[in-house]
């Protein structure tokens, strides 16, 4: 794999790994703050970021060895409203800046495995940003997020709050594979 794409993919792996942890912590806080459905959304999204980290790690399968990895990651342990804002900011950074730039480099270098892993990620992150925004609107009005269900596509990281999809709208995985939170 070309060095620049490998660096970018390791950085994205680092960012996704941190998001995975951060959302578990913020999910526990949402539960404590009395927003159980927001907590479920954080836990499902935490696992979605694990899916993305795993895709990136596997795309890097031939890049063996030890590397210093630099990646952006939000910090702060505040109210659930503040934590949701942190989550929205992180998702939007990935959607608007990080992945478009990394995908452009990978396309230039014709790195198919990297392109495919990062396209899955960017499409799912758009959905995450939307759902966290919806959650923040509810929390800022003093209520929990309203959702029929909280479902995760374990193939690409898509999340549904309705369960009305037949298959995953992003990767076409069968709905029977979806995990409920
Ligand atoms: Fe995300
Ligand atoms: Fe999917």
Number of helices: 4
* Strand ordering within the main sheet: 2-1-3
Q: From N to C, what is the helix and strand string?
A: HHHHEEE
User: Mean pLDDT, rounded to whole units?
Assistant: 97
The value of Rg in angstroms is: 16 Å
Bound molecules: fe (ii) ion
CATH class: Mainly Alpha
Helix content percent band: 55-70%
Low-confidence stretches: none
What general form does the structure show? Answer: globular
Please report which band the strand proportion falls in: under 5%, 5-15%, 15-25%, 25-35%, 35-45% or over 45%: under 5%
CATH structural architecture: Up-down Bundle
InterPro entries: Ferritin-like (IPR012347), Ferritin-like_diiron (IPR009040), Ferritin-like_SF (IPR009078), Rbr2/Nigerythrin (IPR052753), Rr_diiron-bd_dom (IPR003251)
Protein name: Rubrerythrin-2
EC number: 1.11.1.1
Organism: [Clostridium] ultunense Esp
């Amino acid at each position: 794999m070309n060095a620049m794409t490998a660096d970018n993919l390791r950085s994205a792996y680092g960012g996704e790994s941190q998001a995975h942890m951060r959302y578990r912590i913020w999910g526990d806080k949402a539960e404590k703050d009395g927003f159980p459905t927001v907590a479920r959304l954080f836990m499902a999204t935490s696992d979605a970021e694990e899916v993305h980290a795993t895709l990136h790690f596997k795309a890097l399968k031939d890049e063996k060895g030890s590397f210093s990895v630099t990646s952006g990651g939000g910090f702060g342990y505040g109210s659930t409203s503040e934590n949701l804002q942190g989550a929205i900011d992180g998702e939007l950074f990935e959607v608007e800046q990080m992945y478009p730039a990394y995908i452009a480099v990978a396309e230039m270098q014709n790195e198919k495995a990297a392109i495919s892993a990062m396209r899955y990620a960017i499409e799912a992150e758009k959905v995450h940003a939307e759902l966290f925004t919806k959650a923040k609107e509810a929390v800022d009005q003093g209520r929990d997020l309203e959702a029929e269900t909280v479902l995760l596509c374990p193939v690409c990281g898509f999340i549904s709050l309705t369960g009305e999809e037949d298959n995953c709208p992003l990767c076409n995985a069968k709905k029977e594979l979806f995990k409920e939170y």
